[in-house]
Amino acid sequence: MNRENIISKALEKGLIGENDELSDERVYNLIFAPGFSTAEQISDVSGRGVGMDVVRRNVRDLGGNVSISSNDGAGSTVTIRLPLTLAILDGQLARIGDETYIISLVSIVESLQMPREHISSVTGQTELFRLRDEYVPVIRLSELLGTKSGKTDLEDGLLIVVESDRQRHGLFVDELLGQQQVVIKSLETNFRQIQGISGATILGDGTIALILDVPGLIQRHLEDCNRRQQRLSAVAC
Amino acid sequence: MGVQTQTTEDTLQSEDGLDQYLSFKLADEEYGVDILKVQEIKGWEGVTSIPNMPDYVLGVINLRGTVVPIIDLRKHFELETIPFGKTTVVIVVCVNDEEHGQRTMGIVVDAVSEVHNIAMTDLKPAPEFGSACSTESIKGLATQDNKMLIMLDIDHLMNFGVLQAIEQHDTEKEKPAGINKGE
Q: pTM of the predicted model, to two decimals?
């Protein structure tokens, strides 16, 4: 970038005084000022002095910062720094047995208690809950996740209705614990990917809560049901 | 968090060719682990369990902001399990895998013993055990103070012994019921 051009333009716009001390860093970062442009001609995507200002504002809104360094004739480097905590999720904490799990709020449609008269089953296997005018399959998370404790009576716990792929399912949990923003920690860095779990987070008291992956859980539930079905038909033969 | 680049054992050998190993007890057996792989030793504080894993994967812990999986070696080696006591510790190791890079994992052992200086040349090759621990995970056997130390290749044990075993555990679960006998 041409330092002289920038300085003369800045002087023209009154952004700097004649005798101001101008480090390279300060000069090059002048281009972020709103309305600042050294272009002689305006094209349809540049020249108005708006672009860099928008970039800086957006980056700052995300909690980061942007800076430029340049060597005349050698090139320029734009550095954008963004904080790590962008991997944030708005989650619903739910307790199943002794463990706390997190479900992304984005997937949740509603949460409710199940009155006995609305619960029914199909072929003695799948449990359905009548939610107003539709039937929602109930997924017992304690079975799917292998937690040892956990409520067994559907009337005692809560149903979290989730939507994935335009299909609704109900996740049966013991208790709802609250909503909070959580920072997503990867399980794959040190371990491996687990179907149904999209990551982990560290709660305020230092304990770990696993973040449930709703589509993965539904998939696993369907696979389990199919396997159970095959087992039954094998025995029946 | 800073990540230290892993240097090979050769370049860090002392002049007399001795390597340092941390030994720990499991049941009546003593095992040794290359001390350069050991990141730290923590007391046992409880884990958050992970669904549908083999029983030797106890779960994960929060290690200063990182999620670290914890493996119970007694269960993995199919030794009799005992309740965790005052000396039960977790040895946090940094293992390397060609594809994945570095992993930080923890192993639960009965107690740590001490650090020994042992030369690679003093290690006797391990005979075929036919045990739960494949001989590739064992670098060799050493004798120290009249006791036998089983030197573990912790990289191999974690990457192949544990992680691959988990893969197999998963694929077995998916077999249709007809193949399983006695169902």
A: 0.70
